[in-house]
Amino acid sequence: MSQETEHVKCLIIGSGPAGYTAAIYAARADLKPVLYTGLLAGGQLTQTTEVENYPGYPDGIQGPAMMEHFEKQAARLGTDIRFGYVTSVDFSSLPHKVIVDETKIILADTVIISTGASAKWLGLESEQKYNGFGVSACAVCDGFFFRGQDVAIVGAGDTAAEEATYLSKLCRKVYMLVRRDEFRASKAMMHRVMHTHNIEVIYNTEAKEILGDGQVVTGLQTINNKTNEEKTLDITGFFVAIGHHPNTEIFKGWIDMNETGYILTEPGSTRTNIEGVFACGDAQDHVYRQAVTAAGTGCMAAIDAERYLAAKEHAVVA
What we know:
This protein is an alpha/beta fold.
């Protein structure tokens, strides 16, 4: 049985702030973009509650509602938004070949990758139960809601150390759980943590269970992995800072990436090593990982795609 084939000028893989912003700019540039949402339409923000750090929302907004606004704007400007999942790609020739849901072939003159990244979790049932209600994987996003409160953070790398320091400026007390008897963070970050008066580092310790009242987090049960001693911390916020993994598996072997799978783009642009393929948002940004920076690179990707197509058309005419 032959697969259905469709040719498009601009294909956007993934939703979220980067994908929808790319769609808004691509639609206004008359690239007639087709956007496939992926399995989690709207991306990571649909799994958060209050968003207070995105410009233009003076009273804050719920993450899912904000992504609905992005989607509606992209659709109103002419983006063809489809629920679907890209299962494989073939970037060996132009136009690029993209397989959706293993059944449909899209031939795309340009491809914008905005597949995002996913936070790594500990795997506790209570972690997911209270996700957005005291449990977070982003201190910069959610620390503000825990001003003057006691919180815990788990992690031992630079990100965890940085987020613990950030939380220390807002929270009364920050418990930092380190699984081993030492940090993985750089000496500079370790020094900063150790010299912050309201951060208490607890070594050889893991989170056993997040406690709550059915609505919000009320405490944390910890276990010392050397002595098996259990303790309960009175906290209202629990932050997981054990890293993220970019959702870029399907592009391996085609697109240049760093050792952890983040897509490499040319400095000052969203261009990848493949002609006509651009990457934006958390799939290529392991530093900032904010909605506003994702949206900014989404804008860049659409402009880069438009200029690439315009240059090609000009070359043909010439």
